Fold Deoxycytidylate deaminase.
Amino acid sequence: MPEPALKIVESSDEANNTRKKVEEKELKERISSTHTEELIIGLCGPIGTDIHFVADQFKRILENEYNYECRIIKLSSIIRKNAHGGPSTVLASKYAELEALINAGNDFRKQNGANILAQLAISEIAIHREKLKLKAQDDTFKTKRVCYIVDSIKNHEELELFRLIYSELFYFVGVFSNVQTREKNLEKKGLKKEDIYNLIDRDSGEELKFGQRVSETFVQADFFLRLEQSHPPVIVSKISRFLNLIFNSDIVTPTSHETAMYQAFAAAGNSACLSRQVGASIIDEKGEIISVGWNDVPRFKGGVYKSIVQDPLGQEDHRCMNFEGGKCSNDEEKALIRDVLVSELVARNFVKKEDIAEVTAVIKSSRLKELIEFSRAVHAEMHAIIEGSQKGAQGMRGGKLYCTTYPCHNCARHIVAAGITEVYYIEPYRKSLALKLHYDSITENETEEDKLRILLFDGVSPRRFLELFKMSSGHIRKDQGKKVVTEKKNALPKKTISLQAIPILEKEVIKELKSKHLIKTDER
């Protein structure tokens, strides 16, 4: 008799385990069913870049190939609709109209917060979703294949809010054309040269807290798209490739450009520089990595200081963070020059003692702050060139260098001397005089092949490299030995979040807008 009793207990345990697994599966399925196929794509680019064309192509591909409904939300239209003093009527010239639009946007942000345009765009998304629910006569949260394309984000505060609200659903695309191309595009709209220069300067990086900060917003993109010499079919192909990565609708692997920039991005993490972390990599003509480098303090017998297992307390690490109280030598030397200069001016009676503070502030804000040669660190580009030369790499001549930041003029001359023919970067560097000092050897125009070309990086951002190129756990590449072909019209985004969470966050934004009387109570 004891034996059957044991079997009954075992059978009961198995049944309980099975029931628990079923319940866990049902719970996962219930939660998964609340996830949405919605997408939000934000676009950013300097004035004169044809962002509208890119927005239209995203819309066309998503609607025709992925069976999505797309809505383009123009932040400039939100300024015209909501900002007092906005260009509601056609002004005397296109320049006056664009100036008025920028001024109205700045004033509107100053009055209501730097991310106010993002708040209003988010309210449009929320209202549209509610309308879809009413149209379907369904009050439950159900996924819809809808994509909202935001044209265009100019301020990093706006970008941060979109990412906070929509998280995995949000993709940010940086669209770029060089200055010459942008000038031509603006000339076609009837703008004069001097007006174009003023607009480009204002757009790229106004010093106002609530102004447009395109340059510092653009660099945070998930995908970079360079337009200047690309024909429409090439641009469409690049957009299609990016959407394939978002949806896992085809097998896409990184280009040698993307791999090299990711290597540079990863190398930057080694840097302990107190100013900024920069990474670089060099590839030969075949696309093979020759070397990587980062900015840090050189050490005796070659290379730079690193964190090593044998020195956990950093007693042998003489980088700036551990050197003389953790001071930046470049800043110290500039401060010394400034103080000596002020003392000399006072001693020679050019400056009164009561004016010392004011004069010091003027000198501090002058181009003295742009001096870079007093740093102890070797720059990332130089480090990569040295490492490559020490390995006896022959492919450096005619190769390409990838750097997370535009090279300074000191590095630029070494890059030219090394025989490298192309440089790709992500972050701008205003202190660089590379083009001014070496106009005979360097260009930013990709059509000039008789000079070192310094070009903005094009492709998947290194920030999203692993996430976008890694196949999701549920994706199967083959079935019975054959590649699985995904039907794009039914393809799900690789990353999704619950639609039950989004409206709660959107309501917080709408509540804020109502408190500012920027949205009517009955609109939501």
